[in-house]
Amino acid sequence: MNGLSFGFGPVEHEFWRLLFVMTRIGAALLAAPMFGIAGVPPQARVILTGAVAVMVCAWTQVQPPAALFSLMGMLSVAGEVCIGLALGFALQLAFAAPILAAEVVGGSMGMNMAVSVDPNSGAQSPALGQYFTVVLTMVFLALGAHLQWFALLVESYRTFPPGQTWLGAQRFALVAAFATRTFATGAAIALPACLVLLVVQVVTGVLSRSAPALNLFALGLPAGVLGGIAALLASAPVLTDLVTRLSADAIEQAAEVLKP
């Protein structure tokens, strides 16, 4: 069937079926923000992919191509990778909103010098970005949104069965359009702190003009940091509501990709 035969008959057929199903799931986990980070061992990712693939094989009638190592078989595998990456990337866009908010708030506070390595992307990000990302991850897991995402991943085999997994230009444009929600949510997260920091900077500017002998840098930087921290503490309830809505939007975005 696949150009390779190990002489195990039906067992070998189920093995190739499982391997084919793992392609889409593995691509989705690789692109997802929580499961595709460098801190997750590849072995754990493969085990999780195999566990979900076993359930998909039991619940659906997915069959691999008749000739998996032919041109049509490779195109089917590419289609599986395509839909998996789309589902993971839709989730990744939602998790980018806190990083955007942290860039704006950190720049206003003068905290962009405090950077750390982002485990999601491996690049440097502000320390505030790590705080926002941890809050979003905890709320996302507490709401059970990751289970809904796995349910969408399983449902994708009914919506886009193998051989019909090419999304087309319209769906790729839909995924790209999710970035507008990312920017809007990032601005909403950063708005309370930015308003407070704007007032602090205006007051600092007035003081520097009224008393030129004051050291603007010695006064403005501590005032900006303290004002930003106070604003973050005061806006914590709003942050929770925004992150909760962002978690719902992340699942909604992934569901929109699968709409027929």
Structure overview:
The protein has 260 residues and is mostly helical. The protein has one domain. The protein is built from nine helices and two strands. The longest helix has 43 residues. The chain is elongated, with a radius of gyration of 24 Å.
Keywords:
single chain; elongated
The strand order across the widest sheet is: 1-2
**Overall tally of structural domains:** 1
Largest sheet: 2 strands, antiparallel
Instruction: Name the beta content range.
Output: under 5%
The number of helical elements comes to 9
Radius of gyration: 24 Å
Give a brief description.
With 260 residues, the protein is mainly α. It is built from nine helices and two strands; from the N terminus they run H-H-H-H-E-E-H-H-H-H-H. The chain has helices spanning 10-31, 42-59, 71-95, 97-109, 127-142, 145-159, 168-210, 216-234, 236-257, and strands at 115-117, 124-126.
Topology:
Layout: H1 10-31, H2 42-59, H3 71-95, H4 97-109, E1 115-117, E2 124-126, H5 127-142, H6 145-159, H7 168-210, H8 216-234, H9 236-257
Antiparallel strand pairs: 1-2
Helix pairs in contact: 1-2, 1-3, 3-7, 3-9, 4-5, 4-7, 5-9, 6-9, 7-8, 7-9
